[in-house]
Design goal:
A three-stranded antiparallel sheet has the order 1-3-2. The two termini are about 40 Å apart. The protein has about 160 residues and is mostly helical.
Length: about 160
């Protein structure tokens, strides 16, 4: 490959890795995706190892995660017994799926936390003083506000699903 093209490709892969890590994404996974995204042909694990100069285990683990995300897919190449991969070219689709998945996970975590907290403070069994009952009432009022916010987030995700 021409030195200028190789330099441009290496810089792109490096910058994508750095940019994604600033958003809390795995630096190496982003680089792996970038290599496949720029490639005009399917690449095997060995091709990726050679290109990135990393271990096959590292490539294998991270390619599986990219597959789970829908960012890459395995394809068959006639005449070869190796696994080959190509990148999903619709970056908007990948990002929207990752954001949606992350938001839904957080919504579930908040719902679980609210349910647990509500269960604890609702099990009075005559143990709470009048002052503590007022505290519980205050807790529940505030938790209702969090629950409303959680429901709004859930509705926003549903709405986004319909328009995307």
């Amino acid at each position: 490959m021409n030195k200028k093209l190789e330099l441009a490709q290496d810089r792109f892969i490096e910058k994508i890795g750095n940019m994604c890590s600033k958003f809390g994404l795995n630096h190496f996974m982003a680089q792996l995706y970038a290599v496949l995204y720029l490639s005009n042909k399917p690449m095997s694990l060995d091709d990726l190892v050679e290109h990135l100069k990393v271990s096959k285990g590292n490539v294998s683990i991270n390619i599986r995660e990219l597959e789970r995300w829908g960012a890459v897919r395995q394809i068959w190449v006639k005449g070869s017994r190796r696994d080959f991969y190509v990148a999903e070219e619709d970056i908007k689709k990948i990002i929207s799926e990752r954001v949606k998945s992350s938001i839904l996970k957080r919504i579930t975590e908040v719902s679980d936390m609210l349910a647990e907290f509500n269960e604890i403070v609702s099990s009075d069994d005559g143990e709470f003083t009048e002052e503590e009952k007022e505290i519980v009432k205050n807790y529940k009022n505030r938790l209702n506000k969090i629950e409303e916010l959680n429901k709004m987030a859930s509705m926003a995700v549903s709405f986004a699903n319909k328009i995307l």
